[in-house]
Amino acid sequence: MDLIQDYEQQYAVLTAEITANIGRIGTSSGAERNSLIADIDRQLEESQELLEQIGLEIREIPQVSRSGYTSRLNCYQAEWKRLQQEFNNAKTSRPKGIGYESVDEFDEIGIQEDQKRRLLDNSERLERTGNYLKDSYRVVLETEQIGTQVLQDLSEQRETIQRARGRLRETDAELGRSSRLLNSMILRALREKIVLISVAVAIFLVLFLSIYFSMSSD
């Protein structure tokens, strides 16, 4: 995650430079303009490579924390496409001098107005980029908090299941001991009943024989 943040910081610096250089294209010409265009092309390529690296790093983090980083990456990619479009527009735009007395007058006034407009646009873009980063960072923090809470809940549930499983094993053991004790009591009762029946039969035989012999002697 620290590596992703490093890439994000590099991307923010690059996009700020790209925004500033795009604003300078309208006020430059000749070799300076060509140099600016070459620099912006290089910076756009570097920023795109950074986005690709961020995407690769996001695939390596746990699924529970991935959604926040993915949202931020989508914002960065949308911002990159917007910068690319603005760069293309800036390369192809040409000033028109209708309504001015001379080309020099138009160039001077047009450059001033264009500088003001582009400075305002750059400020707005930088502010939007900062807001995107703040919102994305807030989403990541919220996602991390949710992920931490989910992991804690899962850990508590696992402990509860393990305790319940332990109690179930103890209950099974108690039931086994109770079953053996009950079987032992039943066998003891059966033996005692057999003994009682045997004693009763013996007493009956003794009485019967006593009566029989007494009647025979008479």
Structure in words:
- With 218 residues, the protein is an all-alpha fold.
- It has one domain: t-snare proteins (Methane Monooxygenase Hydroxylase, Chain G, domain 1), CATH 1.20.58.
- Helices cover 90% and strands 0% of the residues.
- α2 packs antiparallel against α3 and α3 (66-92) packs antiparallel against α4.
- It is rod-shaped and about 160 Å long.
- The protein starts with a helix and ends with a helix.
Q: How many domain units?
A: 1
Q: Structural class from helices and strands?
A: mainly alpha
- Work out the number of β strands: 0
The percentage of residues in β strands lies in under 5%
Task: Spell out the key features of this protein.
rod-shaped, single chain, mainly alpha, 218 residues, Methane Monooxygenase Hydroxylase, Chain G, domain 1, 4 helices
Summarize the structure.
90% of the residues lie in helices and 0% in strands. With 218 residues, it is mostly helical. The chain has one domain (2-165): Methane Monooxygenase Hydroxylase, Chain G, domain 1.
How are the elements arranged and paired?
Blueprint: H1 2-25, H2 30-60, H3 66-92, H4 103-217
